[in-house]
Specification:
The protein has 13 helices and 2 strands. With 350 residues, it is mainly alpha-helical. It starts with a helix and ends in a 31-residue tail after the last helix.
């Protein structure tokens, strides 16, 4: 069993070994660090996933009437046609305001141990509540969301079917649970999963070389598990802190959650699935080229001085993490009634 702890603490440039492992040996090493995407929808804590709940969550995910303006939906910042994010440095929200951070992909987010760059939401249900109420995003309130839902009989029927036996199923908690159930279906198995499951031909020679370099360099110390990340918190600039253009001094990361000095400029490790189609990169969203992002991470986190061929190989491996999207049919949203709240240009008070 290889120990990678020392690689995180090193300050000298890392000499990367030349890849030479046999497929079976490399796969054994990879399976110590990664797990393939499961074949079924993962179970959620305190939220049974049913077809009715998935369909309700899908409608809510795409419905812009969940925002105060009637313009922005969950899909606005987590566009399922563009990698589960919006491919912008930072998202645009209510009143065309800019958000503070790059929007993470919603694809495979169910495998993250916490949500948001700073991990402030423990699960997808809690995450779903945040943007709805954020003044720079959807700028709505729970009360207004519930008034909107209750004004449309179709939504009331869907909540009844999704949460049977509850006297009043149209609640903000159930709103979030339905979205969580839908988002749990957004998993994207890739060629890398086929390779982990034993298909030697799923990766080409350069991708296989890139995987071995990824492991040898210590990238998997932070980017591991099913999602190759999303499951730990690390300082950005463990060995060499990037410049303020990449690591803005005003955003102290997890410190805003814990108010603990050691968490300054600490962020949740970014999950790497579909990374090739989710540019720009980092919480600041300022790096558009994946090769550049690989180079920055190698030097700032590991002290590794990778050459051009090594960067190309790791980038090729990361491309193998682009997965197959589940088929998503755009929902027919419930019709409004005279009681449906009208859009407003104002940020509603929470």
């Amino acid at each position: 069993m290889r120990s990678l702890t020392a690689l995180l603490a090193g300050t000298a440039a890392l000499a990367v070994a030349s890849p030479a492992l046999a497929q079976n040996e490399l796969r054994d090493w990879a399976l110590e660090m990664f797990s393939p995407v499961p074949a079924t929808i993962p179970a959620l804590e305190d939220n049974i996933v049913t077809p009715e709940k998935i369909e309700l969550g899908k409608a809510l995910f795409f419905d812009p009437r969940m925002s105060a303006s009637g313009v922005f939906s969950c899909n606005s910042c987590h566009n399922l046609a563009t990698g589960g994010d919006d491919n912008m440095p930072v998202s645009i929200g209510h009143g065309w305001q800019k958000g503070p951070r790059n929007s993470p992909t919603v694809l495979n987010a169910v495998f993250n141990e916490a949500q948001f760059w700073d991990g402030r939401a423990p699960d997808l249900a809690e995450q779903a509540k945040g943007p709805v109420q954020a003044g720079v995003e959807m700028a709505n309130t729970p009360d207004n969301v519930l008034a909107t839902l209750n004004s449309m009989p179709q939504y009331v029927d869907w909540f009844d079917a999704s949460f049977p036996g509850e006297g009043d199923p149209v609640t903000f908690d159930n709103f979030a649970k339905a979205i969580e159930a839908f988002e749990a279906t957004l998993i994207t198995p890739s060629r890398f999963d086929a390779w982990l499951n034993g298909d030697d031909n799923a990766l080409d020679a350069e991708e296989t070389q890139g995987l071995e370099l990824f492991l040898e360099a210590g990238c998997a110390s932070c980017h591991n598990g099913v999602n190759l990340g999303g499951n730990g918190y690390y300082p950005f600039g463990l060995v060499e802190k990037p410049g303020a253009d990449i690591l803005p001094v005003g955003d102290k990361g997890r410190f805003t959650v814990t108010e603990t000095a050691v968490d300054e400029y600490v962020f949740r490790a970014s999950p790497l699935r579909n990374i090739a189609v989710t540019a720009p990169y980092f919480h600041s969203g300022v790096v558009w080229d994946l090769r550049t992002a690989v180079d920055i991470m190698a030097s700032s986190q590991l002290g590794a001085d990778l050459d051009e061929q090594e960067i190309d190989a790791i980038t090729a491996f990361l491309g193998s993490l682009t997965g197959d999207m589940p088929e998503i049919t755009y929902p027919i949203l419930p019709a409004e009634t005279a009681d449906t709240p009208r859009p407003t240009g104002e940020v509603l008070p929470n």
